[in-house]
Amino acid sequence: MTGDPTWLVPLPVVLPLFGAGLALALYRRPRAQRAISVVVLSLVLAVSVALLVLADSGPLVIDVGGWAAPVGIDLVADRLSALMLTVSSAVTLAVLLYSLAEGEADGDEAAPVSIYHPTYLILTAGVANAFLSGDLFNIYVGFEILLAASYVLLTLGGTGERIRAGSIYVVVALLSSVLFLIAIALVYAATGTVNLAQLAVRLPEIDPGVRLLLQVMLLLAFGIKAAIFPLSAWLPDSYPTAPAPVTAVFAGLLTKVGVYAIIRTQTLLFPEGRADDVLMWAALATMVVGILGAVAQDDIKRLLSFTLVSHIGYMIFGIALATQAGWSASIYYVAHHITVQTALFLVVGLIERHGGSTSLDRLGGLAKLAPVLALLFFVPAMNLGGIPPLSGFLGKVGLLQAGVQVGTPLALTLVVGGVLVSLLTLYALVKAWNKAFWQTPPVEPPRTPLPLGMIGPTAALVGFGLLLTVGAGPLYGYTDRAALTLQDRSVYIASVLPDGERGQGESAEVAEEAEDAEHDNAPGAGDGTAGDGTAGDAAGTEAAGTAADGRVGAGATTDGGRP
Amino acid sequence: MPLNPDTSPNLTLVLVITALVTVGVYLLLERSLSRVLIGVILLGNAANLLFLVAGGAAGRPPLVGSAEPSEMSDPLPQAMALTAIVITLAMTAFLLAMAYRSWQLHRHDEVQDDVEDRRIARLAARDERATTDADTEDTRSTLDEEAAETRDETDDAPSERTTPVEVP
C-alpha cells in the first residue's frame, strides 16, 4: 500500500466514528474517553495535513467499498477539501483541549461529559464527510451526521434556555434538510445520478429552466445552513446559549460547511453562474444586516454571532464573483474566518469565566485584571476587523481586488459595501473592547482564576490565526491552485470518472461478470448494447488509469486484494 | 440504460406528495413543537415519495437474475429513500424528546420568542443605548471646564481648585 496514498482519504471520517463508538462504550471511564478523543482528533489532524500535501499534486479519489463511482459512493480529497479539512481538524482539536481543561476545572458534574465526547467525535466525522464527499446524497448524509450531533451538543443539559434556543435551531435545520432532500430527488429525477462528477457532465445537457430550479433549490438548502440573509435569523438566536466550546466549534465550522457546499456546487455543477447576481445582493444584505445587528448588541456572544453572519457575506461575495481570484480569496477567507471566529468565541468563554458575564453592561476593567486575556481578545478581534497586516486584512484585500477586477457596477457596490462593513466590524469590536477591557467595572467581578489548560488552546488558535498571516503567501498560492482546479472542472471529473463513465471500483468487473453470466444463461435481446458498454468501460479505465498519475496502483491493489 | 426506460411520473404519487407537502408546510408554521414535528414527518415522507417518483415507473425487484434489467425498477432512489427514512426517524425521536422536555419545564411545548431580541428592540424604540459608556455619558462638565480643572504646568497662576493644599 506504500505507493498509493488513497487509503488516507476515508480516515478523517472513519477514525472519529470508531472513536465515538469506543468512547460511548467506555462511558464509565471519563479518563479513557478523554484519551480517545484527543488521540483520534490528533490522528485526524495528521491525516488532514498529509492529505493537504498530497492533494496538491492532484485529487485523491477512493470509491468506498470498491463500488465504482456513479453508483457507489466516492470520497474526493482535492485541494479545497483538504484545506477545509486541515483547518477544521486543527480547530476541533484546539476546542476539544479547551473543553477538557474546562471540565477539569469545573468538575464533571457541570455537564454530562460521557455524552459530550462521542457526540463531539461524531460531529467531526460529519464535517469531514461533508468536506470529502463526492456525491450529493453523501453530502446530505454528512450534513445529517453533523446536525444530529449538533442538536445534542446545543441542548446539552436540557436547561430551559437551551431547549428554547434548541427548538428554533432544530426546526430550521430540519427544514433545510428536507429542502436539500427534495433538491436531491429532483436532481436524480432530472439527471439519473447524484454523483458530483457525473452531474457535472450531465447537468449541461438538461433543460436550462430545470437546471436553474435545481440550482436555486440547492442554494436555498445550503443558504440556510450557511446563514445567508434572509435565511440567517436562526443563528444569533440559537448559538449564544450553548456552552462556550460548543458555540466556538459551531461558529467556526458549521456555517462554513454550508459555504463549502455552495462553493462546490456553484463551481462544479453550475459553472454558468446564473445565480451570481442574486448571490451578490444576498452577500451585500448578509454583510450589512449582520453587522448592523452586531452593532446593536450588548452581549459579546450575540455580538460575535452577528459578526459571524455578517462575514459569511464576504465569502458569498467571493463565490458570486465567479473568477479564479474571487474563489481563491473566498477560500482563504473561509480558512481565516474559521480560525478567528472560533478563537474569539473561546476567548469569550474565558471572559465569561473571569468576569462572570458576557453582557457588556456588567463587564469592565479586564485589561487590568487579566492582561493575558486582553491580548488574546485583542489579536483575533483586530484580525476579524481587518487591521493590516493580519489575515483578515489579507483576505479582504484579496476579495476587494477580485471585485475590482470584475468591475461591474454590482461588484463595485459590493467592494464599497465590504469596506464599510469591515469598518463597522471594527466599530462593534472596539466598542466591546472598550467596554469590557478598559472601563471600570460596574460591579467587582468574582475573580475566578483562569486554568492554564484553557488559555493554552485559545492561545494556540490565536497563534494559528497569526500563522495564516505569516504563511499567507504560500497559502494564497495554495488557494489559487485550488481555485484553478475549481475552474477547470475536467480535473475533478477525470479523477473521479477516469473514462467519463465509471470510477475505479470493483463493480465494473462485477457488472461484467454478471453480464457474462447472463450471456451464458439467456442470450436475449438488449444484452448486446449493455455488454458493449461495459467492455468499452474496462478498456477506458485502463487507458485513463495511466493518465491519472499514481492511480494505476489503486486499481492494482484492489484487484490484488480480491480473491 | 439497462433499467426500465419508462420515466413518466406516477400521477397518484405526485398528488399524494402535493397533499403531504401542503399539510406539512402548514403544520410547520404552527407554534407547538408537536405539530411542527408532525409537519416535519409529513414533509419527510413527501420527500421519500419524491425519490420513488424520481426513480421512474415501478418494475420488478432489482435482483440480478430474477428479471430482465429492462423490467427492473431503479434501486438507487430506493436506497436513498431508505437512508432518508432512517435519518427522519432519528430526528423525529430527538424532536419528540425535546418537545417532552419543553413540556416538563414549561408545561407547554410552544416555540418561544427570543427575549434578547425583544429587549434590544424595546431599547431601540425608546432610543436608549444598550450599554452605558463612561466616555460618552453626560458627566455634567464640558471639555473646557475639565481643561480648567487640570493643572497646567506652564501656568503662572494656577486655578484655585488645583492649588495644592498649603502645608502649615
TrEMBL record, chain A:
Residues 133-419 form the NADH:quinone oxidoreductase/Mrp antiporter transmembrane domain. Pfam families: Proton_antipo_M. Residues 535-550 have a biased composition (Low complexity). Residues 497-563 are annotated as: Disordered. It is found in: Cell membrane; Membrane. InterPro entries: CPA3_Na-H_Antiporter_D (IPR050586), NADH_UbQ_OxRdtase (IPR003918), ND/Mrp_TM (IPR001750). The keyword Cell membrane applies. Its main location: membrane. The chain crosses the membrane at residues 6-27, 39-62, 82-101, 113-131, 137-156, 168-190, 210-235, 242-263, 278-296, 303-325, 331-351, 372-390, 410-430, 450-476. Residues 525-534 have a biased composition (Gly residues). One of its GO terms (molecular function) is NADH dehydrogenase (ubiquinone) activity. NCBIfam families: PRK12665.1 (NF009308). Belongs to the CPA3 antiporters (TC 2.A.63) subunit D family. This is Cation:proton antiporter. The lineage of its organism: Bacteria, Bacillati, Actinomycetota, Actinomycetes, Micrococcales.
Automatic annotation (TrEMBL), chain B:
Residues 126-168 are annotated as: Disordered. Pfam families: Oxidored_q2 (PF00420). Its main location: membrane. The chain crosses the membrane at residues 12-29, 36-59, 79-100. Residues 126-151 have a biased composition (Basic and acidic residues). Gene3D superfamilies: 1.10.287.3510. It is found in: Cell membrane. It is a multi-pass membrane protein. One of its GO terms (cellular component) is plasma membrane. Belongs to the CPA3 antiporters (TC 2.A.63) subunit C family. This is Na(+)/H(+) antiporter subunit C. It comes from Cellulomonas cellasea.
